[in-house]
Amino acid sequence: xxxxxxxxxxxxxxxxxxxxxxxxxxxxxxxxxxxxxxxxxxxxxxxxxxxxxxxxxxxxxxxxxxxxxxxxxxxxxxxxxxxxxxxxxxxxxxxxxxxxx
Length: 101
Hints:
It is a single chain. This protein is of the alpha+beta class. The protein has a domain of 67 residues. Helices cover 47% and strands 13% of the residues. It has four helices and two strands; from the N terminus they run H-H-E-E-H-H. A two-stranded antiparallel sheet has the order 1-2. Strand 1 and strand 2 form a beta hairpin. Helix 2 crosses helix 4. The radius of gyration is 18 Å and the shape is flat. The two termini are 27 Å apart. The mean pLDDT is 85. Pfam families: DUF1799. This is DUF1799 domain-containing protein.
């Protein structure tokens, strides 16, 4: 976390502990409250519905909720994580369909 981000938090009266671990500045840490949501999203990474178009093109439609439900039940993820999964899916679709590698 950069010093400017710490200053922004300080403006709201929040103090963020300094990270002296020498972590990678290109890596954004995940808040503990979001960890299960991220793990559930990653656990569902093979459950995307994709349609082939043209010669080698693909359109990402969304996650297969039936398959993701199995992942959720087997992983014992909380119900609130399901809403987070859908938010991440909605954010990922435009990126997946942008055509950028």
